Every structure is written in C-alpha cells, then in structure tokens.
Amino acid sequence: MASPNPETLRVLLERRLSRRRLLQGGASLLALAAVDRPALGAGRGRLAFEPVAPSDRDEVLVPPGYRADVVLRWGDALFTGVPSLDATRVASGALLAPDAPAAQAGQFGYNCDGLGLFALPDGGLLVGVNHEFPTPALLFPGWAEAGREGRAAFVREHRSVVRYMQAAVGLSFVELERTERWTCRVSGRLNRRVTAASPFELRGPAASHPLLRGSGGEPEVVAGTLGNCAAGPTPWGTYLSGEENIDDYFGNGAAVRSDPDLARAYLRLGPRPRESRYRWEFVDARFDAAASPREALKFGWIVEVDPFAPNAPGKKRTALGRFKHEGATPVVTRDGRVAVYMGDDEPFEYFYKFVTEGRFDPARPERNRDLLDEGTLYVARFDEDGTGEWLPLAWAPTGPLSPAAGFRSQADVVLRCREAADRVGATPLDRPEDVAVSPITGRVYVSCTQNLSRGAGRIEVGGRVVATAPHAACPRAPNEAGHILEIAEDGDGTARTFRWEVFVLAGAPREPGLLAALPLTAAPLEPDATYFGGYAQAARVSAFANPDNLGFDADGNLWIVTDGAQPGGANNGCFVCPTEGRERGRVRRFMSGPRDAEIAGCEIAPDGRTLFLSVQHPGDSGRAVAPGSRWPDGGDAAPRPSLIAIEPTDPRRRLGE
Ligand code: FEO
Ligand code: CA
Ligand code: CA
Questions:
Q1: Is 251's pLDDT higher than 70?
Q2: Rounded to whole angstroms, how far apart are CA atoms 380 and 446?
Q3: What's the mean per-residue pLDDT of the chain?
Q4: Contact (CB, 8 A) for 596 and 566
C-alpha cells in the first residue's frame, strides 16, 4: 500500500464514519461519536491482560495471571473399563492392532474442533466436541512412508486402520466437573461417543428425495457423521454440528458420470473423482461411490444431537441445505423465530441463513424439538454500497429454482444447495467459516479465512467457473491473511436486507499498511493492506491471520481463533478485541498454541471465567515416527489433539481482565 496523504486519510475517515452511521441504522449524528466512546463494560469485563508474544514454541502460552489446563486428550477413556491411550506406543504401531478401534470408540476422539457447553444442574458442565478428521500420517507408522501409490495397499494390509479412523471421528459428549481444575467424569451418565457408524435420521425436505430413499421408497438408513467442524448449542439445549469436508471421505466419484441425477448432485459437492483422502473405500464399500453412489449425499448437512438423550439418534436437518457446513449459529429473533447463520468453507462459496417457520417456546422444550425442519433458507448477496439482501432458496413453479431450471422440488434445492445459490446470484466469498453474534449489539460477524485464488480472471472451482475479481466484501487479491465481515440486519434475524462492512482485514499491522479507514470502494487492495475496525495504533495490535472460529463474551468482546500461516511464522492462537468503543478492532493475542496446530472451539463457560479451546492437529507437518510436535505429553509421546480450559488464577477475576 502506498502511504495515503493526510487529505486522503481525512476523506477516507469521513466516508468510514458515514459507513458506521449506515451500519448503525438511523443513528443520529451524535451517535457517530460511538466510535470514540469508552469500551463497553468499562470497569467490568475490560480487556486488561498483557498480550502473549508471538511464539513458535511447542507449548500453550497464556498471559501472566492465567493458567491453561488440558481437560481431555485424544485417547482419554470416557468410560470405566476402557483403556486410555498410551501415546508413547503410537510410533511403534500400537494403533495398527486389531483391538485399537474398539478402544478408540470409548475414548475421546481425534482432532477436536468446534464445541458446545451445557450447564448441568449439579454445577458441572456437559461439553459436546466435534472430531473433524483423522490424520493417518500421525496415527499409523507406514502410512506416510507408503506414499500416494502405496496407500491402497497399506489400507488393505492393515484393514483395521479404517475402523480405527471411523471410531476416531464424529462427536464426543463428556461430563466435566470442577475440582482444582475442570476434569472429565469418567462414565458420566451423559458421556457418549458418536462415530462414523452411529445412527442418524434424515429430516426435512431431502428425506423424501428419490436419491435418498430406498428402492421401495423407504427412508435410507444413515450411519454416522463426518467432517464435523464448528458447533454450538441451540437455545433449546441441543447440539448443532456442521459436516464440512465430506468429499475427503469418499472415492471413485468419477464412476457416476453416466447417471445424470447423481452427476448433477455431485457436481458442486461430491466424492473425490478417484482415491479419497483416507482410502476407506478400499475396505469399506460404503465409501466407494461406484458401489454406494448415494452414500455421499447423506453427508454435508447440519446435524442436531440431543446431548441429554444419549440413546436417541442424531438428526440431519436437510432444510438447512447441503454444502461444506462450517457450523451453525442460532439466534432467537424478536418474534420468537430462530435465525441460524451458516458459512460454506470453500473458496468462492457463500454465506447462508435459515429462519424457522415456528417459534421457540422456552417453556415447552418438546415443541422446539423439530423447529429446524420447517422454514426458509436464504443466501447472502453483498452489494458494493454496503447493503445486502438475503435471497430465498425456495422452490417455485417458475423462476431460477423451478423445474425449467432443473429443480423439481425443495428437496432438489437443498440437496443441490450450492447450485441453487449460484442461480439466485449469491456473492462468492473467501472461505466463509464460523459466525458469532454480539450479545450487546446483535451484529453478526463471519470469518473469511483465506482465498489464495482471489485475483484477476476466472477459474473453475467447486464444479463451476467463477469470476475471481475482488469486490467490496472481499477486497484483497490474493487474500492470504483472511478477514472478518460485520453485518447489521435491518431489524433482526428475520430481515430480508442488511448492511455490512469489513470489520478486520487480518495480517501484520504495520504503518503505513494499517488503514485507519476502509471505504467500500477500496477494492482491489494489496494483499498486505490491513484494517482493524478503525483502530489506528499499529504498535498496540497483535498480528494475526486466517480467522476461523469466533465467539463472544458477555461484554461484547469478539474472540477469534486462527487456522493458517501466521505473520512471522508464529504458531496459531486465540485473539480477542472489542467490537465497540475506542478500542474497537484492537486485536490482542490471548493464547499461543503448540506447533503445527490450529486452534478451534472458542466457547466461554456460563461463569464467564473459563475459555474452552480445542487444540487441533498438533504436529501434523510430521509423521508417526517423527511428529512435528510432542504436545501435550512431551518426551517421545505422540502429539495429542486436546480440549483445554484457560482461566484467571485469581478467582475474583473474569476472563480477559
Ligand atoms: Fe473445518 Fe472450516 O474449518
Ligand atoms: Ca473451522
Ligand atoms: Ca479450520
């Protein structure tokens, strides 16, 4: 970025202030001073910790006056009678043993990701945790060494590794209790593992789709959930989880090209054309599209699980569309309906919301049980003037989602949701991931993690050709460091229109690269242009990149965890910034993770003191015999993805103080 002269800066700032007025909707000129008002919750909940320095050390670092406890490690037994993993034996092949899968099915799963917290009446917590994917190169000696060509032979020789991976993914629900620190209640009544084999029901429009019914019209049996990425609790006490990179699990997608219905359903989200990432198809025909062509269509949904009914099957809520679901963030609207915000995490994909038809009834929980089966699905169009529209993805006898356009029913629309969104004119974004809604302002924040293909021209991606040019909502080309969008609904979550602006353009904030003001007309911007909500003191901001999961504390501070290459080669971490007041956009590093890990989760306990984070895939640049991390056990132990809890050591202090 060239350094803007003072006159340009003044003009930019004025434009920015008028943008803020627009975003705040009907605010008076006086209210513009909101930009300069003191931080919300001054004197209470103020962010006063000493930021953690960037680090490449193989450990979890937190600010002075805080402690980080490992709560659950991959392989910890959740039930009495189940052995816990001995991580020192992974490199010698312990997980190749035929009895390893059975043990894993009773242990905390691999690669913990999004999580949800539920208060228990006795003061404990029930935590739901996603286990997004296996990392076979770290689990099984020989996998990495076999190379691409040798993986099929490796899997055929060690058939139980597929069952092991199937038991290591899915979800965990675990009761926690507070003693000196948060610990797992082994054999807690609500402890539960959901794996790639657990029963699910398909609900909503796609449950009646011809591709998802048996030859006699009976509902298809659905086994398992896969690619579970971000997550969260609903207002009625269930757990939502997004099925994201489901294409990694299925192979032989090219085999269905001769079937027009299947080929079209696969076009924007299907199995890999040849070998899958994890090679399950070589020993389990369910994951071979040639043998089981419908199976992949049962994945790519939002799943809902009742953590308080450990024997009830989960439900796949197909009304919310099929795509690479990062997660689902529900909010209750003024009239009692529920809006659910959802990102589709792939370059040039879209931002969605679902608004329920029915109303949330806090007094009668049973009435909320199937709220997510009826409602309207929308996809966002971001206009260059800072306004936007929610475009309904609703089947109609005429128009873009009609039989003439190849959509025979709403079942077709939700099954081929990405294609439907293409047709109504949604705005392609830079990997829209997690969403968080401010409890103070109601504004909606969505991470756009990265898009290295943002630039000039057109490319073929995700089964269609798309223009890659930057636009106001994705202004940098290429977008290496990612950004966060801020959305104000015109009203509440039921609105059909909204206003928006870029909240943060992540990266290393350096003068003059730090923009004090970001006009909507800014695109295209250089890749290293940064913007921190208008905060202009570069030296007081922590460099960060690739925002992924987001969370809010009760004071309206936005918590951000990262997944990607950090400025200066630092490890991924957790960051936090106010979204209002004088320090709006002042991002500070609160935690630094171990090597080769991404940080996920990002949920705050009801007491407002404890931050729960997932440390995912530590050491994944290496292989089982030479991992890139030894965290958390150290010595010669395998790295273990783990759930951690961070809190102030002084019991009188709140998180962030
Ligand atoms: Fe699974 Fe989009 O991170
Ligand atoms: Ca994620
Ligand atoms: Ca991620």
A1: yes
A2: 12
A3: 92
A4: no
Residue whose CA is closest, atom 1 of ligand 1? 229
Distances (CA, A) of 45 to 61, 65, 176, 578, 653: 21, 15, 25, 10, 9
Distances (CA, A) of 405 to 160, 284, 396, 415, 572: 45, 36, 10, 15, 44
Smallest CA-to-CA distance from 642 within 104, 57, 110, 38 is with: 110
Dist. CA 462–CA 444, nearest whole Å: 26
Ligand 2 center to residue 283 CA distance, Å? Answer: 29
pLDDT tens, residue by residue, 433-478: 999 999 999 999 999 999 999 998 999 998 999 999 999 999 999 9
At 29 the pLDDT is: 28
Query: Cβ < 6 Å from ligand 1: which residues?
Result: 132, 229, 244, 326, 345, 433, 548
Q: How far apart are CA 472 and CA 101, in angstroms?
A: 49
Angstrom CA distances, 220 to 145, 198, 205, 232, 450, stand at: 38, 14, 14, 27, 37
Tokens 């001054």 belong to 42
Distances (CA, A) of 55 to 216, 267, 276, 481, 576: 59, 42, 35, 18, 17
Among protein residues, the one whose CA lies closest to atom 3 of ligand 1: 229
C-alpha dist (Å) from residue 525 to 12, 302, 479, 521, 531: 14, 35, 9, 10, 11
Residue-wise pLDDT tens digits, 25-79: 433 322 222 333 334 443 334 899 999 999 999 999 999 999 999 999 999 999 9
193, two tokens: 């593992």
Report residue 216's pLDDT band, with 50, 70 and 90 as the boundaries. confident
CA distance linking residue 292 with residue 304, whole number of Å: 25
Return d(Cα 393, Cα 417) in angstroms, integer.
8
Report the separation in Å between the CA atom of 613 and the middle of ligand 3, taken as the mean of its atom positions.
13
Tally Cβ neighbours within 10 Å of residue 363. Answer: 5
Q: Which atom of ligand 1 is nearest to the CA of 434?
A: 2
- Residue range 480-492: mean pLDDT, rounded: 98
pLDDT confidence bin for 260, thresholds 50/70/90? very high
How much of the chain exceeds pLDDT 70, in percent? 93
Burial class (CB in 10 A: 0-12, 13-18, 19+), 310: middle
Residue 144 CA neighbour count, 13 Å, CB half: 17
Distance, in Å, from the CA atom of 454 to the CA atom of 625, rounded to the nearest integer, reads 37
Q: Work out which ligand 1 atom sits closest to the CA atom of 324.
A: 2
Ligand 1 geometric centre to CA of 92 (Å): 30
pLDDT tens string 220-229: 889 999 999 9
Say if pTM beats, i.e. exceeds, 0.90. yes
563 alpha carbon to ligand 3 midpoint, in Å?
5
- The pLDDT, as a whole number, for residue 511 is 78
For the record, the structure tokens of 215 come out as 């030859």
As separate numbers, helices (DSSP H) first and strands (DSSP E) second, the chain gives 8, 34
